[in-house]
Amino acid sequence: MKKVFFTAALAMTTLFASAQFMVVTTVQEASEETDGFEMEQVTDNIGLGYMLNDQLTVGIQKAGEDANGDATYNMWARYNFGDNMWALVSAPSEEASDNLSVGVGYSLNVWNALYVEPSYTMSLADDSDDEGTLNLGLAYRF
Fold this sequence. Notes:
Layout: H1 2-17, E1 20-27, H2 40-43, E2 47-51, E3 56-65, E4 71-80, E5 85-92, E6 101-106, E7 108-111, E8 114-123, E9 133-141
Antiparallel strand pairs: 1-2, 1-9, 2-3, 3-4, 4-5, 5-6, 6-8, 7-8, 8-9
């Protein structure tokens, strides 16, 4: 039993020692009720990603609240192609296959491990008349 425990502990420490995590968020537009910038515009869509390798990152991101006031989350995967360019697939944690979103983006390194990430996403849902949205995100890699 000790061997299994120590093997699992060693595997977890090497996994996290070589891992690169990233904290991401999408900045929301100011609502009509607010006079200007509020910190909630940055923190409402905060998420965490895990870089599996140089090209693939997977993660989860807060997507707001449902009718009961409970937080909802989106799962996402990002594939890096080219210099700081990436493709994104995102889906809610419930009814994921019916509400997929796809997009492309660019990571602009502004300071050490802080990135500004403009992106364009569009929904693949059948009932969506959405032509897509232009987003501004922030990411910190550690």
